[in-house]
Specification:
Elements lengths: L3 E4 L3 H12 L4 E3 L6 E5 L3 H11 L8 E3 L15 H10 L4 E6 L6 H4 L4 E5 L4 H10 L3 E2 L14 H8 L5 E4 L10 E4 L6 E4 L5 H8 L3 E2 L28 E6 L2 H9 L5 E5 L10 E3 L6 H17 L4 E5 L7 H11 L4 E3 L6 E6 L5 H10 L2 E5 H8 L3 H11 L4 E2 L2 E2 L1 H8 L3 H28 L4 E5 L14 E6 L2 H12 L3 H9 L4 H5 L4 E4 L5 H4 L4
Parallel strand pairs: 1-8, 2-8, 4-6, 5-9, 10-11, 12-15, 12-16, 13-14, 13-15, 17-21, 17-22, 18-21, 22-23
Antiparallel strand pairs: 2-3, 3-7, 4-7, 5-6, 9-10, 19-20
Length: 527
């Protein structure tokens, strides 16, 4: 299929787009929010083409776009009077309202629900196309399913060229995130998806509203999406996205400690601190953040980055919409770097007695974060497994179970493989560690101790206030390893030789604990 490229300013473009839609075709149209992939909302067969072109699951409902209030009545059981009050203030504009649907709405549009989502876009070109077609238009975002939404015609071409009949270039979208979705079929009305119309603006008209838990959390197992944009992962680049909360200084230190090809997605003026960066608006300016966030997420892939660490926006006003899109882009991976207890790093060569030091600190009221345990948990995450199989081959999974030994063999066969393994697993290990530290805070721990054999090669070192290295003489370590693990001297020496030299553990340490038979409790008396 050849995709026609039409310019909104061309007088024939609106007519051409309208004719394609009347004939059951697909046209990407500009709106003030994002570009939408439009089809005749009353034609189930035409709507099915949307799902095919996007690769979109059919259990995700679509929004129906109209150009005037008079077009709504045939689409619903009855027009809720509150719609007129909302329309007076916010239509045309980035607001979608859900009501009980009429028999005219096919199941392909509503995903089998008894409701329909309707909005009236403010973009002049969109309304002209709707009016010229004489049809209500079902239109999700005009992108490949799951990818960042398109805010320029070039984004649509990038994702859907050859898969749709036409794209109408109406310039860059002014809002930059999808519309607010509110349902009027609940009491009180429920905000299902935040957007350019804020919760406070809705309350000005509707009075009390509730915010769906799905704005901040994953849908529960078996729970059906009542609105577009409620799926687990959405709006995502190929790179692994992580949201980082906290001060810029903490963010900077954390990002600079990351391994692999990393992109800092930060606020205006902050990018100069990083090798690879994208700025997505001004700090505390939710309007500019909304306008730029999807462009930024697309640029992450264009830069060839493996990971993106995004400065967390405020979750109020339009910022709630930005935060919601980032949550789904990051598959809810959020790292909060603001701690109320000290965080200490603990490392040392095998046989040095690091575990003994950890036990002493634990008895003093310190919480021990064991990164070996977290590394095993990290590779249970479905997203991490998907990235590992993409990089190291699907056959590292046997009967649904990760073959850790085979993964290790392939990853450690080269420096590139080792770096790739770290880039894939470290963000999840870090998230789990930070989550555990915050749990320790709530449980009244005196401090958190991150126990990691290769701490200084881990991004976790960036969140430690000070670092402890445990040392012991080689002869004593050899004896301990042989007794502890029932190894021959040869095998024990091989294991010791696989680790970095003693200088690795001492040069970057703030505190060195000598475990050559000296009193450990005495050395740790000040803790």
């Amino acid at each position: 299929m050849k995709t026609l490229y039409l310019k909104e300013q061309d007088t024939n473009s609106i007519k051409t787009a309208a004719e394609i839609l009347k004939n059951g075709g697909l046209v990407a149209i500009p709106t003030e929010t994002v570009y939408g992939l439009a089809a005749n909302a009353l034609d189930g067969d035409a709507v099915k083409k949307i799902f095919i072109a996007k690769g979109r699951p059919q259990d995700n409902p679509l929004i129906v776009h109209v150009s005037s209030l008079s077009e709504i009545e045939p689409l619903v059981e009855s027009v809720d009077p509150r719609v007129y009050a909302l329309a007076e203030k916010y239509w045309p504009g980035p607001l979608t309202v859900i009501m009980k649907k009429s028999a005219l709405i096919p199941d392909e549009v509503s995903a089998g629900l008894e409701t329909v989502a309707i909005r009236m876009p403010s973009h002049d070109g969109a309304r002209k196309i709707i009016s010229a077609s004489g049809l209500p238009l079902a239109a999700p975002s005009a992108n490949a399913s799951g990818k960042p939404s398109p805010t320029k015609a070039s984004h649509v071409i990038e994702d859907l060229d050859g898969k749709i009949d036409a794209v109408v270039d109406g310039g860059e979208c002014s809002v930059g995130v999808e519309s607010t979705v509110v349902t009027l079929v609940t009491t009180p009305p429920t905000l299902l998806r935040p957007g350019g119309i804020t919760p406070e603006q809705l309350e000005d008209v509707l009075g009390s509203i509730q915010i769906s838990p799905a704005v901040f959390e994953k849908l529960r197992e078996g729970e059906k999406a009542e609105s577009p944009g409620m799926k687990y992962k959405h709006y995502a680049p190929s790179a692994q996205v992580t949201i980082v909360k906290g001060s810029f200084e903490n963010y900077k230190k954390f990002v600079l400690a990351q391994k692999g090809t990393v992109c800092a997605v930060c606020f205006e003026g902050e990018g100069k601190n990083f090798e690879k960066y994208i700025e997505y608006g001004k700090e505390n300016d939710d309007i500019s953040q909304a306008h730029h966030i999807f462009d930024a997420l697309r640029e992450v892939d264009a830069m060839g980055c493996e990971s993106a660490f995004v400065r967390c926006p405020l979750s109020s006003g339009v910022g709630l919409a930005v935060y919601n899109r980032l949550l789904r882009s990051a598959a809810f991976r959020v790292i909060d770097l603001e701690f109320s207890i000290p965080v200490i790093g603990l490392t040392g060569q095998t046989g040095s007695g690091k575990t003994t030091v950890a036990d002493i600190l634990k008895n003093k009221g310190y919480h021990i974060v064991d990164t070996d345990i977290l590394a095993r948990k990290a590779v249970e995450n479905p997203e991490v497994i998907a990235l590992l199989t993409k990089r190291f081959g699907v056959d590292i999974i046997n009967d649904g179970i990760l073959d850790r030994r085979e993964l290790a063999r392939r990853a450690f066969a080269s420096k590139d493989g080792t770096a790739a393994l770290s880039a894939i697993t470290h963000p999840e290990i870090t998230r789990l560690a930070v989550e555990e530290i915050h749990t320790a805070e709530k449980c009244g721990a005196k401090a958190a101790v991150i126990d990691a054999a290769l701490l200084f090669d881990s991004p976790l070192v960036a969140i430690c206030e000070k670092n402890i290295s445990v040392i012991a003489d080689e002869k004593l370590r050899l004896e301990r390893i042989m007794n502890r693990d029932s190894l021959s001297e040869k095998d024990a020496l091989l294991r010791m030789g696989a680790q970095p030299p003693a200088e690795y553990y001492t040069e970057k340490a703030d505190i060195i604990i000598d475990n050559n038979g000296l009193d450990l409790n005495g050395q740790l008396a000040d803790f």
